[in-house]
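Backbones bend. To wit:
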Amino acid sequence: MIRITREADYGILLMTYLAQTDGQAYSAAALAQQRRLPLPMVSKILKTLARAGLLVSQRGAQGGYSLARPPAAITAADIIGALEGPIAITECSGDHHDGCSRLEHCEVSGHWPRINQAINVALQSISLLEMSRPDPPRPVHFYPLHHTATANTAGHPI
């Protein structure tokens, strides 16, 4: 199963909340309470997102965290990448292939980068602004790459 980490999931929840607040700064405690998330994890996520340049941290009584850029200029890929590192679904699909001991003997290794790129493109195409607004689910269409069926297994036209 391909799955983002809990940290990335919580990071997206926190960022979507901040995207809905018109630039207001929130403390880690306020965000943890608002999103009903554990404060230690929220603090860690916010610091990581600030180091990545996605959040601005302001000290003081009126301080807290706010978005560093407009929500339309931040993507799901930015958030996940900041919290998990480069997106790679296998060891051989990222920029560094050193981790795969089977690379020389793998017949499918050339296909993983293409799949990984499709996932990256999808994550880069969804902005924080879009994610922060309710949107009814849309059907996803998958198209065959090379083969179009014209008959079922019994030989009847489809």
